[in-house]
Amino acid sequence: MINKNKVYTYIAASLAIIMGVPGRIAWGVLMLIHFNVLIALTTLLTHALRRLEIESMRAGLIAVEIIALTVLYKQILSIICPIAALTLGFSLYLPAASSVIMTILVSSSFNDLKTDIAEKMKDALVITGFCISLFVIRDIFGFSTITLPSWQNIIVIKIPVLFSSLPFASFIATIPGGLIITALVLLLITKLSSRGEENV
Amino acid sequence: MLSEANKKLLIKTSILAGTFLVIFAILASSIILSRSFYQNGLRQNCQAVLDDVYPNSYKTGQYVDLKSGQNFSAACFKARNLKNGESDYYVVIVRIPSITGAVPAVYLYSKRTGTIFVSYAIENGKANNVMDANFSSSSILYWQSHIDDMLTKSGALK
Q: Taking a C-beta distance cutoff of 8 angstroms, is the pair A105, A62 a contact?
């Protein structure tokens, strides 16, 4: 069950990842790979800075590392899948600039590296699971496709149109529809989570 | 000579400075190396869209530098009409805002017809009914006129 106090952190992270790009699974996969690598490498940097005893510059160095990693990731995308680099464009900088990255990463308490990485990746995994489920819902119900990133292209697999007679179905593909679906899914998860805590 | 504390500080600062230099070198080389892959990949995407909408009609050619901030959200290539042999065509792939988010769209420019919208670079499935020219005409038309200006300012239309 998700921690109630972290719900707002998860909302901010998810919005930064979901809202900037169309609701195709391919874009979701690419954004979330970037997000998870960012969390993992920045946790390693935090521990490296602690070892070197230069924690006074920690916030600035983390910011530099986040931006450098994002620029490098965009160049790697330009080589692997240029159409993704063109479409994602500045949206790649949204999770990097999102305040949730700093909130998750710049924590004052320090454990050993293994525990810290496990804890941070657990947070990142919850956000990843939530975001990818939303991308899947929007792609399948809104576009009636399954899109996957591949070498130099995006694979688009058309699936039989679900609920084609409902006008609401295409609305899920749009940005306002995406926001509404995000809010509904988050409400459901929060309700289930609080009901689970009550039963315990 | 330096005291122990200052020696340690010097070592740490050197490691930090060295790391910055390495990061800068990696980023600079990645930007230079990825340029040709980026242009070739987008050229292939434009060719695929043109072949889909106008089969065996156009062949994309060399990259044209738009000489503007739009280089980050657009790419332009020369194109040749295979049917009449004319070569003063330009195909532009640009990220345009749409009701579903930012999507790559392909436009074709010729002196005779001006800029026309060809298609989106990625299949939109069922969302085509809200993204086609009938429904999303405002963003498609805006970029249609904007591309004329972009090409004029870049000096490609001399």
A: yes
